[in-house]
Write a structure and sequence with these properties.
Blueprint (H helix, E strand, L loop, with lengths): L2 H11 L2 H14 L5 H11 L6 H12 L6 H24 L3 E2 L2 E2 L1 H5 L1 H22 L2 H24 L7 H26 L4 H28 L2 H4 L5 H4 L5 H9 L2 H13 L5 H10 L2 H20 L6 H13 L5
Helix pairs in contact: 1-17, 2-5, 3-7, 4-5, 4-9, 4-17, 5-7, 5-8, 5-9, 7-8, 8-9, 9-10, 10-16, 13-14, 13-16, 16-17
C-alpha cells in the first residue's frame, strides 16, 4: 500500500462506522422485484472504489457536529446518483474495464446498464423525498441536472482538438465536481450552518472534485493500467481532449501538435506510446499536476474555514493527499 493510499484510508477510517450504516441503507434500497436490477446494481456497487462522495458528506457532517440518521440516507443517495452516472458513462464511452474488472455494460449489455442506471436515479429521487426538505431536493436535483449537461457537453467536445483549458474545466466542473460540491454542501445544510460555512463546504467540494478529475486525466498518461484498473489510453480512444493533451498541443512542435491532433480527431491509439512520450517531453504532465495542485490548495483554504476538529483535519488531509495520487 502506498503512503498516499494508507493516508487516505486513515481519513476514511474517521467515517468507517458511518459508512457501514450507509452500506445498510444501500443494500436495503437496492431491493427490487426485478432480479436483474438488483444483480447489476450490486455488481457495480460491490466493485468498490473509495466512496469519496458519501465520505465527503459524512466528513462534513462530522466537522459541523451533525449526528442525525438522515446523513446515512443522503450519503446513499449521492452514491446512487454517482453509480447511475457510471453505468451510463461506460455505455456512452463503450468502456470495457472499470476498477480492474469488466464494466456492467460489458457483462450485462448496454440496454440493461442504461435501464438500471435509470432505476438508480429514480430510486435516489425517492430517497431524497424522505429527507422532507425542499432545499435538499433542490441541491440534488440541480446537481443531477448539471451532471447531465456536463455529459452532453463532453459528448459535443469529443474528437475536438480545438478544445481549450477553459472548455475542458467547464466539463469537469459540471460532470465530476458538481456531485462533490453537492455532497459537501448537504453536510452543511443538515448541520445546519451559516451561509458562509455552507459556501466554504461547497467551495471545498468543487475544488476537491476538480483536482480529483484533473489528476485522473494525468494518470491516463502517467499511470499503470494494472494499478488503476482501467485501460490506459481510453480517453484518447474516445477522442477526449483532456488537459495533458491540450497542454501538449500548446507546447509541442508543429509535428508533435499534428500527431496529438490527429489522434484526438480519429480516436486512433496506434500512436499511444508516441503520444505518451510527447505529453512527457512537453512538460504537459507537470502543468496538469500543477493545475490539480492549485485546486487542492483552494480546497484546503476552504476547509480551514470550518470548525477545527479531526473531521475538518481529515478534509484538509484528503485534499493534500490528492497531490500524491498515483493510481
Amino acid at each position: 500500500m502506498s503512503a498516499h493510499s494508507s493516508s487516505t484510508a486513515a481519513v476514511l477510517a474517521l467515517v468507517a462506522d458511518d459508512m457501514r450504516e450507509v452500506d445498510k441503507v444501500i443494500a436495503e434500497r437496492l431491493a427490487s422485484s426485478v432480479p436483474l436490477v438488483g444483480e447489476i446494481s450490486h455488481y457495480i456497487i460491490a466493485a468498490g472504489g473509495k466512496r469519496l462522495r458519501p465520505a465527503l458528506l459524512l466528513l462534513t457532517c462530522g466537522a459541523l457536529g451533525f449526528g442525525g440518521a438522515q446523513r446515512f440516507n443522503l450519503a446513499a443517495v449521492v452514491e446512487f446518483i454517482h453509480t447511475a452516472t457510471l453505468l451510463h458513462d461506460d455505455v456512452v464511452d463503450a468502456s470495457t474495464l472499470r476498477r480492474g474488472r469488466a464494466t456492467a455494460n460489458e457483462s450485462f449489455g448496454n440496454p440493461a446498464s442504461v435501464l438500471v442506471g435509470d432505476f438508480l436515479y429514480s430510486r435516489a429521487f425517492q430517497m431524497m423525498v424522505d429527507a422532507g426538505d425542499m432545499r435538499i431536493m433542490q441541491i440534488l436535483a440541480d446537481a443531477t441536472n448539471v451532471i447531465a449537461e456536463g455529459e452532453v457537453l463532453q459528448l459535443m467536445n469529443m474528437h475536438d482538438a480545438a478544445l481549450d483549458e477553459a472548455g475542458y474545466l467547464r466539463v469537469i466542473r459540471s460532470k465530476t465536481a458538481k456531485l462533490f460540491e453537492a455532497s459537501a454542501r448537504l453536510g452543511a445544510i443538515l448541520a445546519p450552518s451559516t451561509p458562509e460555512i455552507e459556501q466554504a463546504c461547497a467551495d471545498y467540494g468543487q475544488a476537491l472534485g476538480t483536482a480529483f478529475q484533473v489528476i485522473d486525466d494525468a494518470l491516463d498518461y502517467d499511470g499503470d493500467a494494472s494499478e488503476m484498473g482501467k485501460n490506459l489510453g481510453d480517453d484518447l480512444r474516445e477522442g477526449k481532449a483532456t488537459l495533458p493533451l491540450i497542454v501538449a498541443m500548446q507546447r509541442g512542435t508543429p509535428e508533435q501538435r499534428a500527431t496529438v491532433q490527429h489522434a484526438i480527431e480519429t480516436g486512433a491509439v496506434t500512436e499511444l506510446e508516441h503520444i505518451i512520450a510527447i505529453v512527457r517531453e512537453t512538460g504537459a504532465l507537470d502543468v496538469t499536476r500543477q493545475a490539480a495542485a492549485s485546486e487542492a490548495q483552494r480546497a484546503i483554504a476552504a476547509a480551514r474555514c470550518l470548525p477545527q476538529n479531526s473531521y475538518s483535519e481529515g478534509l484538509i488531509e484528503l485534499a493534500a493527499q490528492l497531490l500524491e495520487r498515483r493510481s
